[in-house]
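Thread: "does anyone have the structure for this chain?"

Original post by V.I.:
We have the sequence but no experimental structure in hand. Need at least a predicted one for the grant figures.
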Amino acid sequence: MSVETDKTQVRVENVAFSYRAIPVLIDISFLITRGDFLAVLGPNGSGKSTLVKIILGLLPAGEGNVTLFGENVRRFSQWSKIGFVPQRATQSGTLFPASVQEVVSMGVLSKKRFPKIFKYRDRKAIEIALERVDMSKFGKRRIGELSGGQQQRVFIARAIVNEPEILFLDEPTAGVDASTQQRFYEMLDMLNKEHDITIVMVTHDVGVVTKHVNKIACLNQRLVFHGTHDEFCSSHVVQEIVRGEHHLVCHRH
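Reply from O.Q.:
Generated one for you, tokens below.
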């Protein structure tokens, strides 16, 4: 396990979770530190999405502890520090009768206490968030009129409108074509490097680790690997996880 420092944002310690007495996660421990761009890899049913939900307090851990910014997740209240784009967010957006700006505004309102008064600085925050994901010109468009990749950018804008320190994404490129995926990853890379947002991304796209992520976690109920890209490529687990795509993952372009 990594050594904890003052840059530690998330600490997962001996986390386990079962569903109807069937183990989903077993004894998971690792750290997420400021500046990480972490890809969480693993086969279907390996517990990737479950782990993210436990970290975010959406599911209670059966065993173990999660600490966010030094505070136990059960007592954590500074949720503006964390953004989350859930799996299949775009599918719900296609039928939602709201403009792009209105969708992003929900991220602002979700962090406000009653009365939820919308102020000038909130409108400015929406403009900045849309600019960061290159969607400024679509502000008045209905979310359902956009492509899947464009919709996903809007949901990321909603997640970062409060300027979080860490952003979680669950399968963000599912159903998106290859060229759109590449632009999407470049955008996440920019958010990570230029705006100092820690990125944690659950993905099946093992090829993404070639250019952008600096940390990799591999799950298969247990944490079978957690470390840097180079450590991953020199580990015996790489062959098992990526199989025939080893040349894509371990040879940077």
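V.I.: this helps a lot. The chain has a mean pLDDT of 86.
O.Q.: and The longest helix spans residues 178-194.
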